[in-house]
Design a protein that fits this description.
This protein has 72 residues and is mainly beta. Helix content is 14%, strand content 38%.
């Protein structure tokens, strides 16, 4: 069975403006993305999301520069 992992990069309102990330793994790309977004606090501002095949350890090195992540 194939698994997919989603990464969501987001920021919280000041004073914590540093980028934060949440991850989720599921059986479909959409489910993984939905779960990862669900873990973002309601006041968080999402900047990028991305999904890849495999676990968090399988994340491609290139990141959004190689179209892993989409700008919001």
């Amino acid at each position: 069975m194939t698994q997919y992992t989603a990464e969501v990069e987001f920021a919280m309102p000041a004073p914590n403006e540093s980028p934060l990330k949440r991850y989720a793994t599921a059986e479909t790309p959409q489910e993984a993305k939905d779960l990862a977004v669900h873990y973002v606090p309601w006041e968080g501002v999402i900047h990028r999301t991305g999904v890849w095949t495999g676990s968090i350890d399988d994340r491609p090195d290139g990141g959004h520069e190689n179209e892993l992540l989409d700008h919001q």
